[in-house]
Automatic annotation (TrEMBL):
Name of this protein: Nudix hydrolase-like protein
Keywords, sorted A to Z: Hydrolase
Organism whose genome encodes this protein: Leptomonas seymouri
GO molecular function, one term: hydrolase activity
Domain Nudix hydrolase: 61-205
BP-aspect Gene Ontology terms: nucleoside phosphate metabolic process; ribose phosphate metabolic process
Superkingdom field: Eukaryota
SUPFAM superfamilies hit by this protein: Nudix
Pfam families: NUDIX
Length: 230
């Protein structure tokens, strides 16, 4: 990086129920001739942090949502839980990790356990949590919204997980997919095959970048171990 930068102002251009369009002003701060610039940004309105807190540097890093990377261990094998749902901005079915907004008063682990239960029906508790990531940005050129990735290990043979039932809100239409991960390369192929199932029905399907990257990394790690053993 040649310069250091700071935000000096933010104006709300238009606010809707769930999002607002903002105009940012920022400039370099390293002693050279200041060059103020503008940038458009989308924010979530569901967060509890007041909008005034984002007007100047250092603006808070908002954790709006959790993504749940959950493996289910059953007698017949281990599976990654994937959900499929129609996403209007894409006009396509999106295959993704279970996810959702963090409610007021929740920590990220609690939000992940709740969202997993609601979207997939699978039950977990605090002892199921393997790791909680730092705040992660997914569209840094578009929004300041960050998420946290929570990894869970689920005992699929528990009675409450034998026949999981979703707790969906009115209007939610989410299909639960279990992707086998015994062979990591085959897991990636199974994910892409699942996407193809929707396309065969005339509905476009897109795999979420975070999910694909995770599955692809597992496949490459598997291939690297195989190559090193040769």
């Amino acid at each position: 990086m040649k310069h250091t930068y700071a935000r000096s102002d933010m104006d709300v251009v238009k606010s809707q129920k769930f999002t607002r369009l903002c105009s940012l002003t920022y400039a370099n701060t390293d002693g050279e001739a200041r060059s103020e610039r503008k940038w458009e940004m989308v924010q979530r309105t569901t967060r509890t942090i007041p909008v005034e807190a984002f007007k100047r540097s250092q603006a808070p890093i908002p954790i709006d949502a959790v993504e749940v990377c959950a493996t289910v261990e059953k007698a017949e094998g281990t599976f990654i839980i994937v959900v499929a749902q129609y996403r209007p901005p894409l006009d396509a079915i999106s295959l993704e990790f279970p996810a959702g907004l963090v409610d007021a008063g929740e920590n990220c682990g609690q939000a992940a356990i709740r969202e997993l239960r609601e979207e997939t029906g699978y039950s977990a508790d605090a002892s199921s949590i393997l790791s909680v990531s730092p705040p992660l940005s997914t569209e840094p050129g578009l929004t300041d919204s960050c998420c946290v990735l929570v990894r869970l290990r689920i005992n699929g043979d528990l009675p409450e997980n034998q026949h999981p039932k979703q707790l969906l809100d009115d209007g939610e239409d989410i299909e639960v997919l279990l992707i086998p991960v015994g062979d990591t390369q085959e897991a990636l192929n199974a994910l892409l095959k699942a996407a193809g199932k929707y396309e065969a029905k005339g509905q476009r399907a897109v795999v979420d970048a975070k999910l694909y990257t995770f599955m692809d990394a597992m496949a490459h790690m598997h291939n690297s171990h195989c190559c090193s053993a040769l």
